[in-house]
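DM from R.C. (forwarded with permission)

"hey, sorry to bug you on a friday — could you get me a structure for this? deadline for the figure draft is monday and I only need the backbone to look sensible"
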Amino acid sequence: MSTARRVLVSVLPYPLACAAVAGAYRSFRDRLPHPMATHIGSGNKADGFDDPGAFLFVSLGVLLALGVVFAFLTWLTRSAPGPQQRGVAAAGGGVAVVLGWIVVGILRANAEVGADGDAATVSLPGWQAALGFAAAAVYGVLGWVLAGRDEVPAPATERASAGAARLPLGESESESWTRVVGGRAQLGVGAMMLATALFVGGVAGWPGGLICLAVGVPLVVLCRVRVGVDRRGITVTPAALPWPRLNVPLERIEEAGHRSVDALRDLGGWGYRAHPGISGIVLRSGDAISARLTTGSEFVVTVDDAATAAALLNTLADRERSKGVRG
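My reply, with the result:
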């Protein structure tokens, strides 16, 4: 029942925003210039223009598409621990509020110029976008309350097994292991945020789209990572870039194994995740390296052939500890 309510919290603002946009277009239609201004650039000057009907079609299409996306994301996070689903629902509704506000503001600004006016003179004060984001924040708080309290999920109890395997290596032998893993969910959310940034930037100027851009770019860049195991421990970097780099050194690893990880149930989503007692890089559900750290917590990385990586980690960690004893 809570999931259905949260989907409603996330989705309801989208048809309402579409109704507001359609109503504004109907009211202002006879006063809109042809073409109308659809983008307000630097200096609060219009520098993008389109047919009013096309602008309406694109605006409604984007709103409806985002409504479907956030409905799916809210449903998808139904088994996530903590406030994950609640936050997605509140954020989804907030996006509808700010986009609907900005589109209606663009239509009103064009109507003030008039059908016979010069669309190049259309301007949209910065406070209009600020009010849109403020309204979105208000709905976000309201949506958070309406979404209801979270049930505390049972903690995951599966961990790397005792007596984990070792990879045989001679004293003078050195070995390394590496794999590339990608996540479709993270790529999809990142692409959605970039599309939202382009839309907001196109109708209200780039300052309004920077927030979505700042979220979307890292998600897309980090949707594929390279996982390496060698004498430095576990190292995770973006597949196409040398930075940012996350490293868990051998001296911090007590023992490693592999287990199945559910991204939503165990860690509440994708990407870098951290919860009491467990953290890691999770780009998909499935097999994962599971390292028990000297602090007692667990570090996981979802990747193919995790068993081989874990066995090599155990061998290298044993070797590192033996060096410490001899020293």
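R.C.: lifesaver. The chain has a mean pLDDT of 82.
me: no worries. The two ends are 61 Å apart (CA to CA).
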